[in-house]
Amino acid sequence: GLTRPLLGFSWRNYSVKYDNITPKINEKIGRNIFLKPNHPINIIKTLVEQHFLKSQPDFKVFDSFHPKVSTKQNFDDLLIPLDHVSRGPSDTYYYDENTVLRTHTTAHQVHLIKDGHKAFLVTGDVYRRDEIDATHYPVFHQMDGVKVFKQGDQKDSGTETLEKHVELELKKDLEGVVRAIFGADSQIRWNVEYFPFTDPSFELEVYFNDHWMEVLGCGVIRSEILKNTGYDTSEYVGYAFGIGLERLAMKVFEIPDIRLFWSQDNRFLSQFKNGEFTKFKSYSKYPACYKDISFWTPSEYNDNSFYELVRDVAGDLVETVKIVDEFKHPKTQRVSKCFRINYRSMDRSLSNEEVDQLQWVVRERVAKELMVELR
Ligand code: PHE
């Protein structure tokens, strides 16, 4: 069973009930842009896979699991606590109480290990309800990797314990991946992280364009998880990692807006070729048009539902949604919010009428479906 989210919940509020997959999200399932040759996401995917297979040909590659998974696969099997925020329908897309769109490709870790796989990469589209800006999109792509080691594997490396050996192999393998992408002399550093399914956990950062950038999360698989898959944990230890592919591709190809990955415009698609790291050349930036909207929020309101609704109305014509003002009425304690919606198409100029029409629909639907009071 799933606990109700701690924050407000209302069956009347369509966007926080356990059936919150909008048509715009549904359209994305099966598009499989990550499998299309010469697509920037596919270029990164292929590069990482080939990097692993070159030195470790026993790695199995999976990339055709459907994104619809059980809450058991996505959360329970990975020891994610029942009250973890990521489980709430304000953060996750639900088909029903027990079925979600995967929020990470780690959802496939346990069933693949149970099936006997000891080393694998699994890539796919993942889904999260989130804010709207140049680096956030409700669908993105991840590659997870797993390798299970056995007592004795550490012998030639001169490392004392298998656990330590696994941690060193993990770091060595991932440093290799990052150097294959960013160059042999790139500066990298390890930070300690926290994930419910690994212990210890780390994140890897690379120094790129004057900034430290987080590129992946990883760690030693918690022994409880291996035990649950049938392994004798005195004999076996595994590593796991998860890489966000958009984040890497945006840096490597200098792609300025995450919506571009979904573009079907040849001026975008024709610029990339498998095996090549060409920099994206902007073909033209069309004018932006912003509109503000202000409303009083009811108690069961959440921002992600508002963002979702804006996406449902405007799709990829919305570039950013920013909160520009927020205040609490001293007497009624009601909260008022003002958002600025920035409309801009990636491949054409929008007319004023078109934007006004979109904004009008947003206003109407927001009032009706989120039950806010427009100001
Ligand atoms: N699933 C984690 C995420 O989405 C990444 C991760 C995968 C971390 C595997 C550790 C091990 O952030």
From TrEMBL:
Annotated localization: Mitochondrion matrix
One of the Pfam families matching this protein, by short name: tRNA-synt_2d
UniProtKB keywords: Aminoacyl-tRNA synthetase, ATP-binding, Ligase, Mitochondrion, Nucleotide-binding, Protein biosynthesis, Transit peptide
Signal peptide segment: none
Single GO BP term: phenylalanyl-tRNA aminoacylation
Entry GO terms, CC: mitochondrial matrix
Full protein name: phenylalanine--tRNA ligase
Organism: Acrasis kona
